[in-house]
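Saturday, quiet lab. Running sequence design on the structure tokens for the scaffold JK sent over.
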């Protein structure tokens, strides 16, 4: 778990970029882009950006916060990235990218739920 703690700043960084991407994708979808693909990617980014921020902040009191944040962030990047790739490149990132990203997001949310069952160790 100590090695995961060193990756904590990455969660905050991804949260900010995900919020930025969510707004940009919403704008692209509303100005002639594929509302289905870009709108869905925007929704996932905008839904998970504040969650990543909250998990970054909750690190001290929530044992699974860093792990959940990393898994949620990676899943969202893969899922939204696949939708954006389909729109702009006409092809997916890799076979089963969106389902893989979706499964990672679900695992991340499961880590959040499991975190409620485990207290944080106090020094």
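Result came back. Writing it out in full:
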């Amino acid at each position: 778990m100590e090695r995961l703690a060193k990756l904590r700043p990455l969660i905050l960084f991804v949260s900010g970029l995900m919020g930025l991407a969510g707004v940009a994708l919403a704008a692209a979808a509303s100005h002639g882009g594929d509302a289905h693909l870009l709108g869905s990617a925007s929704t996932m980014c905008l839904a998970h950006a504040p969650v990543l921020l909250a998990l970054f902040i909750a690190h001290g009191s929530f044992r699974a916060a860093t792990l959940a944040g990393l898994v949620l962030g990676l899943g969202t990047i893969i899922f939204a990235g696949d939708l954006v790739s389909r729109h702009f490149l006409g092809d997916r990132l890799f076979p089963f990218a969106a389902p893989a990203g979706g499964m990672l997001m679900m695992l991340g949310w499961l880590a959040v739920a499991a975190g409620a069952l485990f207290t944080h160790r106090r020094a």
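Notes for JK: DSSP finds five helices and no strands in the chain. The radius of gyration is 15 Å. Ask whether to fix the surface positions before the next round.
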